[in-house]
């Protein structure tokens, strides 16, 4: 049970739950509760049968399956594929869920150049990606996620008051 619990935890809690709640969050972006219901239904529709049949399968042929899978490397492949799928799905939702709108515009006569349109025209979604990567980097360096949330909130309010960011 010990070695398989680590695989199950990484598949369920580090892959399935973030994927389901990311999908649910995209449906709840406007403030509705539909996304929460979808996320909970998805998690339980996958998790409950997986645990039930996994328990039955593990009881009937657990040690034999582990020895065969270890020899072939099957479990490592499945785990790596599931983690990669989760990262791709969550990464694809970053531009939808992380919104930054610059309010800076430069005017030269009748020409108005918006910083937001310029950046999005060059590399769409780069600002949310950079902010997300910065947060990941800071969390890995030991910064508290709660501290980062508070700092981000204070910085967003200050930059909006200064006119650098706008509410979209």
From TrEMBL:
Q: Could you name the domain of life of the organism this protein comes from?
A: Bacteria
Alphabetical GO biological process terms: phosphoenolpyruvate-dependent sugar phosphotransferase system
- Name the keywords, alphabetized: Membrane, Transmembrane, Transmembrane helix
An example Gene Ontology cellular component term from the record?
Answer: plasma membrane
Task: Spell out the Pfam families in the cross-references.
Answer: EIID-AGA (PF03613)
InterPro entries named in the record: GatZ_KbaZ_carbometab (IPR050303), PTS_IID_man (IPR004704)
Transmembrane region positions? 7-27, 33-54, 75-98, 118-139, 146-165
**The protein, known as:** Uncharacterized protein
Name its species.
Collinsella tanakaei YIT 12063
């Amino acid at each position: 049970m010990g070695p398989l619990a680590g695989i199950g935890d990484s598949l369920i809690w580090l892959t399935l739950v973030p994927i389901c709640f990311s999908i649910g969050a995209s449906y709840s972006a406007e403030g509705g509760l539909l996304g929460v219901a979808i996320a909970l239904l998805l998690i339980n529709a996958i998790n409950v049968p997986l645990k039930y049949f996994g328990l039955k399968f593990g009881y009937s042929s657990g040690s034999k399956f582990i020895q065969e899978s270890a020899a072939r490397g099957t479990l490592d492949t499945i785990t790596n594929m599931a983690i990669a799928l989760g990262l791709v799905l969550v990464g694809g939702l970053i531009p939808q869920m992380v919104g930054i709108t610059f309010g800076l515009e430069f005017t030269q006569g009748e020409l108005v150049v918006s910083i937001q349109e310029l950046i999005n025209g060059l590399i769409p979604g780069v600002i949310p990606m950079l902010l997300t990567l910065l947060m990941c980097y800071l969390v890995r360096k030991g910064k508290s996620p709660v501290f980062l949330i508070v700092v981000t909130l204070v910085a967003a309010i200050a930059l909006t008051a200064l006119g650098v960011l706008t509410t979209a």
